[in-house]
Structure prediction request, 232 residues.
Amino acid sequence: MKRTVCLLSGGLDSATTLACARRDGFESYALSFDYGQRHRVELAAAVRVARQLGAAGHQTMRIDLRAFGGSALTAEIDVPKHDHVEDLGAGIPITYVPARNTVFLSFALAWAEVLGASDIYLGVNAVDYSGYPDCRPEFIQAFEQMANLATKAGVEGVQRLRIHTPLITLTKAEIIALGAELGVDYGLTHSCYDPSPNGQPCGHCDSCLLRLKGFEEAGLTDPLPYGAAGPA
Prediction:
């Protein structure tokens, strides 16, 4: 089987992306990051998802982006909360982590070269993407071009790297429907940016609201427990 490195946060999108790689016939090596995020509970979800979807290997890299800050996910900045998805603001939100996907893809590129893999799977989405600049097709195309200039395997013509983004044009509802069809257990995933101490999702951050909207539009029930503080 051909090998691929799949970035796996433990969230809904990355779990569906790992399932897509399996559907496409790849032996998948999941790559997660402990980067100082306030929602580190997602790393336990990544372990569960990698196991459920049969990843051939799973690495968690530790890099502390709290040293730079600049994001509500890595600094002492409040995560924005809303009652309705329509309340989400335009523009790039404070939950954007500077250059995060660039950093993550660089690690994935290094592991792919070692594995002899010519493919990387990434769960970015340009429809319900919350305004993140590193989820756009233009960014993915530019990184792929750079990647093929940056490695020994690329220069020697041994490897022509391709970045797969199977979710990039899908709505959240379409992503959820696809994942359900591919056998993803969304009860194992975690999406919340600001969970309670016991890991329960808040139901009011951008990520929770987009997730809940997606399940509603897909005609499915989110299996995660949101508790008393969650949405009505």
In short: The chain has one domain: 3-218. Strands lie at 3-7, 27-34, 57-62, 119-121, 162-164.
